User: What shape does this take?
Amino acid sequence: MTSPTPPPPASDPVRWLSNQPYLLLSLTSFFWAGNIVLGRYVAGHMPPMTLSCIRWIGGFFILLPFAWPHLARDWPVLWARLPLMIVLSATGFALNNALAYWALQYTQALNALLIQSSGPLFVALWSLALFGVRLTFAQLAGITISLAGVLTIILNGDWMALAAIRFNKGDIMLAGALASFGLYSALMPRRPVTHQLSLIFFTTGCGALLLLPFAVWEYATGFALKFDTVTIATVIYVVAFPSALSYLFFNRGIALIGPNRAAPFFHLMPVFGSAMAILLLGEQPQLFHLIGYALVLAGIVIASRQGSAA
Assistant: This one.
């Protein structure tokens, strides 16, 4: 009697995950939603420029042992495209994050979530202005539907509440942060062809250097970092999840399906934010939550389907 054929070896989970763009982009939005909630919570407690700088310094050193072998091979390619790499570092890491943390010192959570919902629009506008890439009908319809779902959640199903919202300087800063990140997203398909660890390692390091003078300025003006439990917990989270992991996942997602198909995943952030409130804060789920979730997911499916051009 012959022995049974052994089962094939399990596939590499890291390799499997790296080829799941929708899961990668969903996890990215989940981590970034937590970053928004946390950023608002520590507003006034932690200097925004210093927090941004520490975020990328920490990400740089986390990635160092994994990225170094790839960076040694990819350095000539990265150096040859240095102007583009600096622009990617400035828009996706330095300017975007510093403005967002600064904005959360002034704006309300409702305003922040509303403005975050415009993220796909900035991506589409930059892609059109720079490269003539137009949204397909499916992408436009998907973004519109998912935006309707976001507003349903944020406004608690009462669309009349939209007229009562007032914007302040923090909202303008946050819009600037989204415009910056939209440019980063539109430029990502033109990035040098390197290993993703080389790219993220270079841009985190460059982003930290760009932010360092502003962090020093904050310290010189008396807004110094307080080393307490809140600070330590915040730094651990922002370094590990919305920084190192999220940008790896986001860059890979764009590489697989393109910026316009990836953009509607921005709308998952308020979905995850409201879910966090239900699970962690004991808020009761309402009918408008379910309607909003359904619209967001339907819009993402429509906009990111395989037939949509990147």
